[in-house]
Structure formats: structure tokens, C-alpha cells
């Protein structure tokens, strides 16, 4: 798989990535764009500032923006870390490298902010400058009103956000690689008339290895989208339940049983059940079902996962049972819930 020409779209579902990119731009207050290794955009801008929109519309200025994106990405690859720099108009930009097997696929470009404490950014490099400085300055002055509206941020805030984006990108690419590995394995097996032989398809792997990888991937997919709020984690404060609590939140894709939770807490199932009901006000089975429906609603809202996949991601035995439980709590099917949510949000 890694010998072929690598394309960023092979590892990122760009449609879904754009939705995540939009959310990140809203939360971080940065403009965000994803580019390939040449600096050519593979997504549209999220929260692009009016100044930068106008600069990129100018055929004489656009190449400088693309050079910034390209060179910033390459410098980030060289450092194997986020690269914070100044664009050709001295605006803060950040390049987050996207690499696979040490091969550079592209970068997530963020920024379009000015420093509120420029004295802390004196070491930042202006990565591209125009040879015709007077013309460049003139065009910039014509957009001064837009330039003055560019938001400000402290240098420390810029660095913290860039590190967060770097960790997030690495995580998503690693998960994509794991999924592609399994896809390749089964495609190879499907093209072979002989019986499935893991020793030839994936040397060193066993069925148990693959099942473990699948379990880890499924949990990772759920965790990548789901949010655990402090109110979720603090509803049951008795420390005796901590092993069970940690297991539930770290294994969202499992069909969790009361007996297993009691075993983790080193108490009998009957005592676990009585104590849990006293702490939370409802029995364990009802509470867990309600929690998984809450997670299901989040997945329905922020992903395009089919209902059957969401059922699997959250450890239900089969989609029909998941739909029945969801309807019990929400009085509507998962599909109709998603449709109604997106209509309310203005999302097609």
C-alpha cells in the first residue's frame, strides 16, 4: 500500500474532514485550510478573513499565498512539528504537516491572526516576500480596513493551538492508516481463490491480533467524535465505581454487562446493582442505555455514519435493537433524529 503514489484524499475523507475543519475554525478562532504537498488547497477555507479573501482573489497576490502554504508545509515537515511563521503580509500563519511513512502528503494551514504581543514573536520568519515591495505595499494599503479587522491572539495562544492541531492530525492519520491496513488485507484475500491465510497476507499477524486491532479502531472512532462532559463523569462520585466508570468511557464499543462491572469493582453483582441505583437514581441497564443513546445522538449530529455503523460503534448487538432503545428514550428513530437536527442547523 505504501509503495504507491500517496494522495491526501486516500487518507482523509475530505468531505467529512471539511466539517471537522469548520468546527475547529469556530472553536480556535483561526482560519483553517488543508493543502496538498504543492500548497494547492484540497478544501475550501474555513473562516477565511476578509483581508485574506481579497488577497487570494488578486491574481498577482494569490501565488504568494500559495508559496507561503507550500514552503510553510515543507518547513513543518523538516521540523516534524508545527511551524509558526509570518506570511507575505506579516500575518501569523501555522503549518501542520501531514505525513505517512515519512512522505509528505500536505498540511493543515491555520492562522490569519495578528499578535497582540508582537514583542514575543520577534523570532518569527517571514517565509515569502515580494520582489516588488512598493506594489505589494500599495495593494495592502488598499485593503487596510480589512487588515485592521483581523483578530489578535497572544503568541502563547498561537503555540498552544498549533500543538493541539498537530496532535489531532497525527491521531486522525494514524487511525486512517489502521483502517486502510485492514481494507487492504481483505481486498487481497477476496482476490485469492485459496482460503484466507493471514501468514501470507499479514506476516506476523494472527486472527487474535486482527480482532484486537478492530476493537481498538472501533473504540478510537467513537472516542474521536464523542465528548465526555464533566457532568457525565461526576454523576456517580463513589470511588468504588471508578474502575467500572473508567471502563465504560474507555470502551464505548463494547456490550458491557453488570456482572463484568461488578467484577472490576470487586463486589458482588447484587451489591453493585443496589449501590449503583442508590448513587444514580436508576438501575445500571437503564443508565447505560441512556448514556449510549446520548452518545448516539452526538454521532448522528456530527458524522455521516450509517445507523448500522453507529449501532456497532456503541456495542449494540444489532441495529434493530439499537433503533428500539433509541426510540424508547427519544420517541423518534435515529434516522429521523438526524434529519430533524440537520434541518434545524441548516445542514443538507
UniProtKB/TrEMBL annotation:
Keywords, comma-separated and alphabetical: DNA-binding, Transcription, Transcription regulation
Domain HTH araC/xylS-type: 242-340
SMART domains: HTH_ARAC
Descriptive protein name: Transcriptional regulator
